[in-house]
Design goal:
heterodimer, A: mainly beta, six-stranded mixed sheet, five-stranded antiparallel sheet, 59% strand, B: mainly beta, four-stranded antiparallel sheet, 11 strands, 0% helix, globular
């Protein structure tokens, strides 16, 4: 069965500092991995996705993530945090099994301190 | 282009009642999935529909049901509401049913409160 583990339910960074949100996955088949962002009282917006084409994936708003099979990780990073990055971030894994089954982590709430 | 739309945005019900939530996918998308997001948790998969057929179901009781219409819009029904059904219900659409790489586009959700 597939699953994702997000380390740290809350992360605080100073404005301009590096953002690092951790995600480890478990999957019986080669995984497809996603990062979504959720702003308060809104739905989820896709930041980026890994589909085996390249291990370093660049997304919107300056975010990127690196797929590391040996570490079963897909951590999300951004070199310099902006106040507008304050939101909740979800890592997700998808695998087929007759239908598109997406499993989400519990989320990491990012606080950006001015 | 319009994104995924959901109605209503907020809903308050009492225990034992029934509720219907609605979702319109992005134009051209034939797959609709429903998720339940309880406060403080990630979304949990409930159903996926494609071409009006149920293609997948998560670990939810039979009180939860859904359907998809010829125009690909969808309804989620929940009977005999429990307090634990209070959550944000998210609808997502995508172009295909089985592709793991397809991006799911999410609507803003319906906030259901059960009193």
């Amino acid at each position: 069965a597939q699953s994702v583990t997000q380390l740290g339910s809350h992360v605080s960074v100073s404005e301009g500092a590096l953002v690092l949100l951790r995600c480890n996955y478990s999957s019986s088949v080669p995984p497809y991995l996603f990062w979504y962002v959720q702003y308060p009282n809104q739905g989820l917006q896709l930041l980026l996705k890994y589909t085996s084409a390249a291990t370093l994936v660049k997304g919107i708003n300056g975010f990127e993530a690196e797929f590391k099979k040996s570490e079963t990780s897909f951590h999300l990073t951004k070199p310099s945090a902006h106040m507008s990055d304050a939101a909740e971030y979800f890592c997700a894994v998808s695998e087929t099994g007759g239908y598109q089954k997406v499993t989400f982590g519990i989320g990491t709430k990012l606080q950006v301190i001015p | 282009d319009a994104g995924v739309t959901q109605s209503p945005t907020h809903l308050i019900k009492t225990r034992g009642q029934q509720v219907t939530l609605r979702c319109s996918p992005i134009s051209g998308h034939k797959s609709v999935s429903w998720y339940q997001q309880v406060l403080g948790q990630g979304p949990q998969f409930i159903f996926q529909y494609y071409e009006k057929e149920e293609r997948g179901r998560g670990n939810f009781p039979d009180r939860f049901s859904a359907r998809q219409f010829p125009n690909y819009s969808s309804e989620l029904n929940v009977n005999a509401l429990l307090l634990g059904d209070s959550a944000l219900y998210l609808c997502a659409s995508s172009t295909r049913d089985r592709s793991s790489t397809d991006t799911q586009y999410f609507g803003p959700g319906t906030r259901l409160t059960v009193l």
